[in-house]
Fold each of these.
Amino acid sequence: MKKIITLSLLLFVGFINAQAFKGKGDTKFNLGANIQNGGSGIGVSSDFGIGENMSYGFAVSYLLSVDSNVLGNKPEFGDRIDAKFRFNANLGNVFQLDEKMDIYPGLDLGLRNFGAHLGFRYFFTEGFGVFTEAGVPIASYKTNPIGFDKLNNQFVFNIGASFNL
């Protein structure tokens, strides 16, 4: 019984000290599922705090499962991967959310398009939490993306684990 109480208290203290965004010098790493029309895969991203409410970072996604086109062709490696530079406004403290939560709208400049995203993080402990993001393209580099060019030029949803480094 003492072990259960001790473990419960340790977990409780861990939950109290969790903080979603600390500001300058803070580093986050996200690993999760990438879900979009016509395919799903994995996505990784990192964010580096440069101010009280600002961060920049990088994101890479790779589609593992992709629908074939009408001719039965599967996309090449270059059609499945996307990499982006991103800038976030971390607004958890602006909206007076619990310090374990952060909401972050942002812009991203990628291999396929210029886009925007909106994300949310919740940390259970100092080092581990969950995140979810939704992203949309604002301007595609191709005037009319067709075929596999549409894969990384559409609404995308990401969900997964977030780590405080």
Note: The CA atoms of residues 123 and 129 lie 4 Å apart.
Amino acid sequence: MQPIEHVVTAEVSAPDHSGGRLVVHIRHRPDDPLAVRLDFAPVDGPGQSAATWVFARSLLSEGVTAPVGLGDVRVRPGAPYETDVELCSGHGRCLVRFRTAALRSFLARTESWPPQVSARVRTELDRTLDDILRCP
């Protein structure tokens, strides 16, 4: 099964009012079906990744309609037809503004994966919980 990728251009702004446009590769991989990856690159520097953020796919799917998230990643509806993703790190924070239609299109493609992905998620989750809860 192939990863799902959607390439968009997004507006990025920081609290100091700096910002610009970045190319964002939104990725969903079969080996990590609960996560999405945002790979950022400058518009004028194709092929160069400036940063990668990995977070729960559910944040993105829920955040297009209502504010969600605590901590490092927060997603919420923005201006009409836009969705804001706020990213925070030890280096600062920034706001990335996406077209909601682009995010919905990407999310719809991730929902069309075959049922074996759901089975794999359940298996991996069960295995992880067993490891965590195992008594010595």
Note: The two ends are 37 Å apart (CA to CA).
Amino acid sequence: MKKITLLLLFITGITYQNAKAQTNNKVFTGAEANLKHYNALYILDDKDDKKIRGTLRNINNALEDPRLKGKITIELIAFGDGVEVYKKTNPYDSLLTTLKQKGVILAQCSNTMRERHITKDELWPYISFVPSGNGEIIIRHYQGWATVHP
């Protein structure tokens, strides 16, 4: 009886190990995008060129992700030092217009504009304005938007 019990335990152990090995052989390819639509708010409050370009590249990468393609809305909210991305004196026009053509909402905090004495004429004409960047982040959060702060 002991031999049969040991044999059954041995066979059960081998079966378990085989099942475990098969599970571990699966290749992870990322999360499955099983929702109909996604919303993401990218936050930019930095004037560093590398940070700005990285953020714009991240947005484009999300738009081109095959899992999200055609079912994502993205907004870029700039406030504080992030206002530099939208200034006509800086070299981001072609990157921004490409994102705008892809449907990205480009929003600027009005508080920053007022506090820094920046006029709308100093920014690209296709920029939208919100009362406050922080307010936008809070509202979007409670609307269920993912927030990305590269």
Note: The longest strand covers residues 38-44.
Amino acid sequence: MQNRTPDGLTAEVRDWTEGAHRNAAGLASALGVSPELYADDPLTLLPALQNYVDRLPLNEFEQSDWITLHTDLTSYLGDLLVRRDGALWEKADDPASPAGYRYVVKATGLDGETHRVEPYDVVMEEFQHPPIEIARMIANAEAVLHRVPALNEESLGDVSLEELMGDEGTP
């Protein structure tokens, strides 16, 4: 993997992008994933991060704990999308936001169109549907960005579970 942050980003967005990466890489390091391994493929953090989240005493969390976890997961999700999917952070105007803007990730989907997702919202949605599943969080963001093939449910109607699992001949 390589840093695909283009030179054309504004200094503010570049700082945001680098800050998200530093936070995610620091989290990886704290969870035992080397900086080199994380830089090569941020997805290598997923098992350790899921294990960490599974062990957290969420029912004992105070607001500051939730903010820290939310920040860590938002940084990781955004950094993963940038480094694995070629996405870019961008500053988007949002008059409803207290700051008047939000940082979102944009990427070209498999449909050739540009799509945007706000990692902050994806993580918040994950918090609303416990248990927190890191892979589901990533999959939801990639689906919004159209980075996964669309499922043709009509064609699946005629396929058995065994065929999907590759067990057609197994009794």
Note: Confidence is low (pLDDT under 50) at residues 1-6.
